[in-house]
Every structure is written in C-alpha cells, then in structure tokens.
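Deliverable D5.2: sample structural annotation.
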Amino acid sequence: MNRNQVLPQVQLSSEPSALKRVDFCAPQSYQGAGFLAISEMPRLAQEASTVIAGDGFDWQMQTYFEDSPASDPHQILDLDLNGRIHLICQRCLQDCAIDLAEKRRFIFVATEAEADDYPMEDEEQEPLVASQHFNLLETIEDEILLSLPLIPKHPDGFCEPHASVFGIDEADEGADERENPFNILKNMKKNS
C-alpha cells in the first residue's frame, strides 16, 4: 500500500445487523457510532438483573492505518463504550446501576497464529484477527462483559437494608427465649 494513498472512509450503520459483518480486510477505514440496547446483546442481557428503559451502551469506533517500520501499515481500531447496566449488588442483593466508560484499542492481524504470538506486554492494544465478515457487535459485547465488575456493589453507604430471604428471621425473634447452649455445659460440669 502506497503511504501517500488516501483510503476511502466508510460510515458504518448503527443498526446491530450491520455490525455483524464488517469487512476489515478491505483497503478502507471505518467510522461509526450508535446506541445498543441491552436486549440487542443476548449474553449481556443474561447478566442484567433488570433492564430499565435507556439501559444500554453508546459506542463509537474508528479504524485507521498506522505505519510500521518493519512491515506494511497496521490497521488500528479505536472503540469507545459508554453506558449503564443493572446488576445485583453483592452487599445488599438489590438492583445496582453500574455505569461503564471504556476505551479500547485493537490492532488487526491476519491470522490466529499472529494473534497468539502478539506480545502480551503490550497493554495499550490487543490483537484481533481481521476478516471479511468480522462481527463488530460481538466484539462490543465482549468488551462490555470484560468491563463488568467481578463483585458489583453500590458505593459505600448506598446499600438498602433488606430482610432475610425468607422474610423476618424467626430465629432472631426467639433468641432471647432459648437457653444458652453453654449454660447446659456449665450445668453438666456442676453435676459431675
């Protein structure tokens, strides 16, 4: 590819179906933006505790070619994600709105072997295998799933108190009426 050649730039449709087949092998660059509702990402929908109108993710992407001193220019994909999903808070077991804002950079490689050999130390960009039928929607969903907190929880002080799973804990009500089990041992010791 001639360095002075200007590549055509293609505007991607924001429709989820259009994101499922993007030709990243073509000599062109892409840009696009849109909103994906939780329901348009089935694996993410399984993680959501509830889906409220407006939950989902704004996405913005662009590709460009970056010169490489030893080889042909590499195609780079910049992806920005911004949105909200509701998960179960692991402290209070109530719904918790999780806001995410992520920026990712990927470098396209030609084969799986190249992706496997890509240096793991490079934390600024991850390899993706380019194809004529690349599923960008799946990549967006993967990145959101990877960004979810391992232990979702409300900020400190925002958890709602809740009753036990079975309602008011009956064992706590009768705790004063029951005899302390150590008193029984104490009485056994006196009797021996």
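Annotation notes: The two ends are 96 Å apart (CA to CA). The chain has a mean pLDDT of 84.
The annotation will be released with the project's public dataset once the embargo ends.
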